[in-house]
TrEMBL record:
CDD domains: ETNK_euk (cd05157). The keyword Lipid metabolism applies. This is ethanolamine kinase. GO terms for cellular component: cytoplasm. Pfam families: Choline_kinase. The lineage of its organism: Eukaryota, Metazoa, Chordata, Craniata, Vertebrata.
Amino acid sequence: MDSGSADDRNQLLHVDIQVNEQDPRGGILDLLSRLRPHWRVQDIQMKTFTEGITNQLIGCYVGSLQEPGCVLVRLYGRMTDLYVNRDREVEMFQVFHTHGCGPQIYCSFQNGICYEFVRGTVLDDELLRQPSIYRLIAAEMGRIHSIQPKRGLSVEPFLWTKMSRFLTLLQRSPTSSPAEHSVAQHEVPSFETLSAEMETLKRHLSLIDSPTVLCHNDLLTKNIIYNHKEGMLKFIDYEYADYNYQAFDIGNHFNEFAGVNDVNYSLYPSLELQRDWLTAYLESYKQSTGREGKVIAAEVTQLYIQVCKFSLASNFFWGLWAILQSRFSSIDFDFQRFVLLTEATWKKKKKKKESKGERDFSMWLPCVVFLAVCVLCRFA
């Protein structure tokens, strides 16, 4: 599947207003007067959703949210433009929608976007583990990974560029928030150490030969909407969607099995679940890319190994992101609790690898505290 032309993607209404985050109704009504001019102001209802982590999300409707025509208004989080490419996000919105994989985006404005409301239920940690659900997720990811870039366009994994951007911002940003002081108490690695670790990680993972595909890159439960009536689901929120390593997208999703609100690393998917998930994924990916042949065990094993390694790259990625969040947020996290949880998990994974003769751990982040940060600042 081709991702379409750039001209098609650039034709999006932009409304030159800024919506007040503290009192958004007036600004939102201004937007709706352009998007839904037939709606009477007195009939318009608004609902604030709490699932968002860094952004404010408001559903606008007349009658019921489940009726067609509802509009979601997303107000960007504080200073998120520093590390989120908003033009790229809009482009990804349109690519996903063009291929039937996401909602329609209606317009952009100075500090946010408006888009179609996806009817259904936000997944929770229990639904995520149900075979009928996770196979749908695997199949949908396979479809998305099959979307090809515009003909003649060369793409590179965004992972290293984005992490380099994070590191640059870390070097330049202040460290005055309560959350950042809490991080410092637990000896988060220095900028120099983090930079060196990224380069080591890059050297190792670049040799794995994981395909570069269109990825969501942030597939936590809150970004999956399940429509039970239709028996289908959609991925939402494309702030980090871009071309990236296939195994990163999958490994990142597997990390999300541990949860967000109540992190429990024992919930990381079992080998049996992972292999079943990967089989469903490969079946979808093969079908969507026009490849013939049944999925064989060797293919599943190869992808499983790649995913295991890139799941740690996901920890590193969100760790950098989380430190940035802590510097821009006033939230005080329970860092010690997450550090202890992650340290125990790290030791368990290391012991398992050592028992298999994999003793070269120099390519992985040695500071176990850093692995915790990827989770604890997802609330910032």
